[in-house]
Design brief:
By secondary structure, this protein is an alpha/beta fold. The protein has helices spanning 28-36, 40-46, 83-97, 118-132, 161-186, 194-202, 216-222, 225-231, 293-307, 353-368, 382-387, 399-412, 423-426, 445-454, 489-500; strands at 2-7, 13-21, 25-26, 57-64, 66-76, 103-107, 153-158, 210-214, 239-246, 263-273, 313-323, 335-337, 343-345, 372-377, 392-396, 416-418, 436-437, 462-466, 472-473, 483-484. A hairpin with a 5-residue loop joins strand 12 and strand 13 (343-345). The structure holds ligand BES, manganese (II) ion (MN) and zinc ion (ZN). Zinc ion binds at residues 270, 273, 291, 352-353.
Length: 502
């Protein structure tokens, strides 16, 4: 579905969307459409229970001339029309018209009481429409014509439309990153495994991202015993992928120094998590195809940043493995040596994500000396118990960084909630047999997992996002259709924009 822009006008044909504020207060365009249809809009509103409440709509069929329909969308109260609400509105427009129209014109005007200019509102509606239009239906071969999404174009009409277009062009690159992540987490594990996921990452070369793929032999040489231990039960070899994007303009004559240190994003990429020898129950095990969600976000984020030519130096590192039980699989009680030299007793082979990240984080810190490192992982079921599907868990060794991520999350509706860390939790993962063990007991499972990661980041400014609860959504929202959400791409793009590029 494509989104286009044009200057505000009163359309004479097709499907038209206009806004109505709470209390049946017509926007200027709603009034113009009312005039153009000789009062059909006000007549229909009067005859209905539609009052302009947000998320409500009223469709008026064949209101006159060549017009197919005028759809009044409730905007609610003007002062509550935030950027996020406008994005939701865009998503709702797509949802409401997808089965009925091939193209729709959305009329956007300034609303008294709302701080945004019409072209800003238009760009937000456009973004919401784009995000809400996502579908992953490539494996459905028997969709009935009637059920197919038809909306091919959303045309947004507003004053100063070139400004709206320019703002949307940036957001569209971010949406492309979100879509890539959604695609990757939606693919089944017979299609996406370490080698093929690495190949997907390589496609970013087209955007100027340099992509390196480390083989098992190279990882062995580096001493990545924790990551390799997880991989050893699978018929699919592991990979470690490093993506570099350097968008920060070089200062003339300056030597590369600390100011040029990259920001690093590290992702858990377990392409299927059966649990290994500590095998998971059968119910819902299919969900574990998206246990590479953290890696998926890092890939989508690199696509977003490179796509919109962000002025920042970034490295993305993803550890790709499949966690399977077999005759060669790692056993409970095995002791592995991580790249850091620290030894780990593997009590539960299903606590594999932290083993993968241990080596990925250490490698990233040692090689790139990043000024900040953020990892993402579908790490624990416990975070879903704590926060459900509304917030990702945030863990950090730096309160300033945590605050920045919380603000960024609020701005894009990918919210994160800070969880505690501390020595009392850290000691729960001490092992009698090795430097540490990979599980800490039943209580505070997300926290002991984060404490485990913390042992591999040294003094680097670091945050960990446990995205197990937010990576997949069963019901769908206006801007996140059911399935893979892409949660994390917009959040971290926003953080880069507000805190790193500035
Ligand atoms: N990938 C899972 C966590 C998960 C569960 C993600 C459900 C998304 C949905 C992770 O590898 C795992 O199995 N964690 C265990 C840890 C336990 C063995 C300490 C868990 O949460 O049960
Ligand atoms: Mn697991
Ligand atoms: Zn896992």
């Amino acid at each position: 579905m494509k989104v286009t822009f044009a200057n505000l006008a009163v359309p004479a044909a097709g499907a038209v969307v206009v806004g109505v504020l709470e209390g049946r207060k017509l926007t200027a365009s709603a009034e113009a459409m009312d005039k153009a249809t000789k009062g059909a809009v006000t007549r229909a509103i009067k005859a209905s229970s539609f009052k302009g409440a947000k998320h409500h709509s009223l469709t008026i069929m064949t209101p006159g001339g060549k017009l197919a329909r005028v759809v009044c969308f409730g905007l609610g109260k003007a002062k509550e029309l935030t950027r996020l609400e406008l994005q939701n509105l865009g998503g709702h427009v797509v949802k409401a018209l997808n089965a009925h129209a091939t193209s729709v014109q959305v009329l956007v005007d300034e609303v008294e009481g709302c701080d945004l200019k019409a072209h800003e509102m238009a760009a937000e509606i456009a973004l919401g429409a784009k995000l809400g239009s996502y579908r992953f239906d490539k494996y459905k071969t028997k969709v009935k014509e009637h059920d197919k999404p038809k909306l091919a174009e959303v045309k947004v009409l507003c004053k100063l439309s070139p400004k709206a277009k320019a703002a949307f062009e940036i957001e569209e690159k971010v949406a492309a990153g979100v879509f890539f992540t959604r695609d990757l987490v939606s693919e089944p594990s017979n299609v996406i495994y370490p080698e093929t996921l690495a190949a997907q990452a390589k496609s970013l070369a087209a955007l100027g991202v340099k992509v390196e793929v480390l083989t098992p032999a190279q990882m062995k040489k580096l001493g990545m015993g924790a990551l390799l231990g997880v991989a050893q039960g699978s018929a699919h070899d592991p990979r470690l992928v490093v993506m570099h994007y350097n968008g920060k303009p070089q200062r003339a004559g300056a030597k590369a120094g600390k100011a040029d240190a990259p920001v690093a994003f590290v992702g858990k990429g377990v392409t299927f998590d059966s649990g290994g020898i500590s095998i998971k129950p059968a119910a819902n095990m299919e969900d574990m195809k998206w246990d590479m969600g953290g890696a998926g976000v890092v890939i989508g984020l690199m696509k977003a940043l490179a796509g919109r030519k962000a002025k920042v130096n970034v490295v993305g590192v993803i550890g790709l493995v499949e966690n399977m039980p077999s005759g060669t699989a790692q056993r409970p009680g095995d002791i592995v040596t991580s790249m850091s030299g620290q030894t780990i007793e593997v009590i539960n082979t299903d606590a594999e994500g932290r083993l993968v990240l241990a080596d990925a984080l250490w490698y990233t810190k040692e090689r790139f000396k990043p000024h900040t490192m953020v990892d993402l992982a579908t790490l624990t079921g416990a975070i879903m118990v704590a926060l459900g599907d509304q917030y990702a868990g945030l863990f950090s060794n730096n309160d300033g960084l945590a605050d920045e991520l919380i603000s960024a999350g609020r701005a894009v509706d990918e919210r994160v909630w800070m969880m505690p860390m501390g020595e009392g939790y850290d000691k729960l993962i001490n092992s009698p047999a090795a430097d540490m063990q990979n599980v800490g007991g039943r209580w505070g499972g997300s926290i002991t997992a984060a404490q485990f990661l913390k042992r591999f980041v040294g003094d680097t400014k670091w945050a960990h996002l446990d995205i197990a609860g937010v990576t997949w959504n069963k019901t769908g929202t206006a801007t996140k259709p059911a399935g893979g959400t892409g949660f994390g791409v917009r959040l971290l793009d926003r953080w880069v924009r507000d805190k790193i590029e500035k």
